[in-house]
Amino acid sequence: MLDAPEAYCARVHPFRLPLVFYLAHTAAFSMRKLAMAGLVDSSETSAFDERMERGVSPEDPDELAGLTDWPSPETAWAYRKRVRGLVLRAVEDVPLSATMEPEAPLRALLMAIEHENIHLHTSIPLVRMLPSRLKETPQGWPAPVQEHTGAPVACDRGEGFVHCRGGPVQFGSAGTEGNGFQWDNEWGRREAEVAPFAVAPHPVTNGQFLRFVEDGGYEKADLWTTHGARLFLDRVSSGLPNSWLRADAGPYRYRGVFADTDMPWDWPVEVSRHEAVAYANWAGAGLLSEEQFHALLNQEFGGAKQVAHRNGDFNVGLQHGSPRPVRARGAVLGRGGTDFLGNVALWLEDDFTALDGNTFRVDPLYPDFSEPWFGRETGLLAGASYAARGHMADIGVMRDFMQNHMDQLAGILLTRPAP
């Protein structure tokens, strides 16, 4: 819960708008999509809906300097309350036997819900950047995991890599009318033959990332090879992950969502794509490709369909309010002892693009969802974090993506060529 107007109006990240915009934005998005599908009468819509529906994601933070005319928190909350009533009415009215064609009313309703889930996920890294005095844990928010190691453990840059045999992979969907909700970048099919490779048994921990920090990794320009890395280092980065805090020469602390804590050194580090690639370069390793992720998913858990049946076994869906230690007691490990599902999503080596560029079809309900982001400025993510809900937690199906400079609830899983 945010305690003061200052919390809603602060721009905590150079590339993001104030939190009050996102508070109103998700409601405006729901209004517009439900109106497009005929679930909300056009007389219920307003210019405010149109104004707040579309966000701004600049290539340079200076582009946001003149954007200051935002609603008050009270206005945004009242607007959300009104839209919530209309959404609940749409839930009652939509025919549940409806099919899932791209423009179907049922799909528009699910899109509104899933868009809200995405923004919950992307807002957590912004809320964590607020000073503690401006926020408090809301009632009903899950408690963070208490289990963690209080001191960094000495370890190699790449400990005990696991062999993945690779082989044929197939992922995606044959069409646009499957039984479940999908975003347009998930329509299409990809098949590939994956060569054998080696993969780390778990994502890089805060303790492992500390070695990169202490080795001057943020100052070594040759490690920062992603598009826009120089701007990130100059305008965004403090020389630490945004989930870390350090006052002067004091101990490192962890920025929880609503409270700062002692550093959990055995939790997976949460970073931007720039930081993930820089660490992999420093470690003499790489990140998984999308095809390698599916090969690993097949080998360790039997593929996406098998994982879907066990979704509740992983740290996803806000069962906890934080990650937990890698290979924690009770964690569900893969057949090779790997622990890479849940906790954090995983940055892949891939730039974000369509599954099949020859057959990609823009979503008629949301034409700006995927296509404007295709390219080297945006990275692809796999897996799911502790806060992934709904479709975002559909591991092996959801193709999440984010601009390179945005820290997410996402980590680093290293890979190397097979020995």
Question: Secondary structure elements and their pairing?
Answer:
Elements: H1 5-9, H2 19-36, H3 47-53, H4 73-93, H5 105-127, E1 162-164, E2 167-173, E3 188-194, E4 197-199, H6 206-214, H7 229-235, E5 244-245, E6 253-255, E7 260-262, H8 273-282, E8 286-287, H9 290-301, H10 304-308, E9 345-352, E10 375-383, E11 400-403, E12 410-411, E13 414-417
Parallel strand pairs: 9-12
Antiparallel strand pairs: 1-4, 2-3, 4-13, 5-6, 6-7, 8-13, 9-10, 10-11
Helix pairs in contact: 2-3, 2-4, 2-5
List keywords for this structure.
alpha+beta; four-stranded mixed β-sheet; four-stranded antiparallel β-sheet; single chain; 2 domains; 419 residues; paralog of FGE (formylglycine-generating enzyme)
Q: Summarize this, please?
A:
By secondary structure, the protein is an alpha+beta fold. It has helices spanning 5-9, 19-36, 47-53, 73-93, 105-127, 206-214, 229-235, 273-282, 290-301, 304-308; strands at 162-164, 167-173, 188-194, 197-199, 244-245, 253-255, 260-262, 286-287, 345-352, 375-383, 400-403, 410-411, 414-417.
